[in-house]
Amino acid sequence: MARKETITKNDILNAAFEMAREEGFEQVSARTLASRAGCSTQPIFRVYKNMEELGDDLFTKAIAFFGAYFEEFPKLNDTPFVNLGLAYIRFSQEEQNLFRLLFLSENRHGKSLYDMLNGKNGVVVREINSAKIFGCKDPSGMFMKMWIFIHGAACMTLTGDYDLQEEDTIKLLEECYHAFQEV
Amino acid sequence: MARKETITKNDILNAAFEMAREEGFEQVSARTLASRAGCSTQPIFRVYKNMEELGDDLFTKAIAFFGAYFEEFPKLNDTPFVNLGLAYIRFSQEEQNLFRLLFLSENRHGKSLYDMLNGKNGVVVREINSAKIFGCKDPSGMFMKMWIFIHGAACMTLTGDYDLQEEDTIKLLEECYHAFQEV
DNA sequence: GCCGTATAGTAACGTATGTTATTATAATAT
DNA sequence: ATATTATAATAACATACGTTACTATACGGC
């Protein structure tokens, strides 16, 4: 009946995601994206009503990416909280642009940090349960403090205001964990 | 000899600062700024070589503003660290755009967070000395941890991921302070 | 009161943005 | 083979950006 589609919605989204990842979300414009995807701007507006709609999809994909990153992160430390922190801080280092998009922008979906981390996989709840097993008095209060700390370290990593070797970070997180357990 | 200047460098800078403060740094363009200052774009380029140069001045002014904010912040709590945190977190709430510019952008002057806070006034050093007085074993390690925590709370405040009443924040900061003192 | 000159306003250039109209293309049903 | 039709490329529109050329203006020295 008609011409076959050569550029799929996925092609567009993938190209956009890689651009956002490598060059930053704000660098993804209709033209630069088209160039990256090896087509004109037309296929973009065929599959997306406008650029904002693509941005929403991109954001969702970034959440999923972070989730996978998190799951696959090697368990370098026995304490779940420490591992959680290491993964998060490393993500802020290795995926600066995605970190900015996910955790430092105006929230695209109205989803809070907590909601995002506690989605389908429920890492947060899992960690809190671990904390219970590890005999912490107030697991959710504990988690909140740890999370604030971890988030702070990650944000400072991003801006270059914090730059420790991994062993030092582990030590720092362990100290925190124990400190918060006492109170 | 010549016409008198009606729009001074300060007029430009002040207008730019207020714009950045209210609407965000990225909203300050030559035209929007001119409109705000009640003139054409010409006076801007008379006193500034280009917009980037104005951006540098703006950033410097923002640092000074934060310093003043900090100095004038009421001493709501006896513990200096807690006060420090309260001021910082409140700043992130009340001056979201300036907070972003100062603490979450690519650093304009290559100045680290620490350097900025430890400028002429030396708040940081002062706090560390207070900590010594308060009998903390490792004041600088302690300060680092507190600062990471405070920064984390402020960043989460900015994105709406943390939203406690002031009394709760005080309680949280006090708990942290004591926790870190134990270790 | 006129002249020189620094200042400010107007308008333009070149570039980039999102988006849309138009044209060309390729695959299928007939 | 031809007509139909969804797809993709080209080109354009309206807007915004930094920046600069040009023009008008107003002030101080004479």
Question: Span between N and C termini of chain A?
Answer: 71 Å
Category by helix and strand content of chain A: mainly alpha
* Helix residue percentage of chain A: 55-70%
Helix/strand order of chain A, N-terminal first: HHHHHHHHHH
Nearest-integer average pLDDT of chain A: 90
Number of strands of chain A: 0
List the total number of helices of chain A: 10
Overall, the morphology of chain A is elongated
The low-confidence parts of chain A are none
| C-alpha-based Rg of chain A, rounded | 19 Å
Largest interface by residue count? A-B, 31 and 31 residues
- Mind summarizing the main beta sheet of chain A? none
What does this structure look like?
The structure is a homodimer of 183-residue chains. Chain A is mainly alpha-helical. Helix content of chain A is 69%, strand content 0%. Chain A has ten helices and no strands. Chain A has helices spanning 9-23, 30-37, 42-47, 51-72, 80-94, 96-103, 113-117, 123-133, 139-158, 166-182. In chain A, helix 1 crosses helix 4 and helix 5 packs across helix 10 (166-182). Chain A is elongated, with a radius of gyration of 19 Å. The A-B interface holds A 103-107, 112-114, 145, 147-153, 155-156, 158-162, 172, 175-176, 178-180, 182-183 and B 103-107, 112-114, 145, 147-153, 155-156, 158-162, 172, 175-176, 178-180, 182-183. Chain A binds a DNA duplex (30 and 30 nucleotides) through residues 1-7, 29-31, 39-43, 45-46, 50-51.
